[in-house]
Amino acid sequence: MRNVACVVAVLGVLVGSGSAFAAAPLTQKTASYSIALTLGPKEAMVTPAEVKAKHLTTGEVMVGGSMAMDMSSGMGGAVRHLEVHITSLATGKPVLSRIPKITVADQTAKSPADPITVVKMQGVGAPASDIHFGNNVDLHVGHSYAVSVAIGSEKTVFQFTAK
Question: Top-level CATH class of 2-162?
């Protein structure tokens, strides 16, 4: 696997009110891809049928995969939306057909990397170019994390501290 140097960044997340703001994406490059990681507030994950039936204007439309149960531990944990946008360096276009493997490791708790259930999705009302991969994940405020994204044999790691 080709490992790319880690980017260390702090992603700001407001605590207490349940609201959060998405920091600018963290971006890494592998030999073939540009990979952008963004964390934001928990997102409603909906099906295309729900969007149509309920006339929804917000949330994430699942276009592949399935949502994992997001259970906050209640011990400083907060559910956040983790999404990864993948762009081909050769074409400059979003990669839609390669599903990445994503793991999250809580480095503060010295936990092993846990794979997340990866969902292919796009924002409600967003164009097809918004297709991205990820899910809602439980993060503990003040903990340092390593998020690994692998596409075939190419891999990169993002590091941040949840606030």
Answer: mainly beta
pTM: 0.80
Quickly count helices (H) and strands (E) in the chain.
1, 12
Q: Return the amino acid letter for 1.
A: M
Residue type, 36: A
How far is Cα 63 from Cα 49, in angstroms, rounded to an integer?
A: 11
| Tens place of pLDDT per residue across the chain (163 aa) | 333 333 333 333 322 222 233 567 899 999 999 999 999 999 999 999 999 999 999 999 998 866 554 444 445 578 999 999 999 999 999 999 899 999 999 999 999 999 999 999 999 999 988 999 999 999 998 999 999 999 999 999 999 998 7
Q: Domain coordinates of the chain in residue numbers?
A: 2-162
How far apart CA 135 and CA 21 sit, in angstroms, is 17
Question: Buried (b) or exposed (e) across 8-47, using 16+ Cβ within 10 A?
Answer: eeebebeeeeeebeebeebebebebbbbbbbbebbbebbe
Query: Are 76 and 141 within 8 A, CB to CB?
Result: yes
- Amino acid (1-letter code) at residue 145: Y
For 159, other C-beta atoms within 10 Å of its C-beta total 16
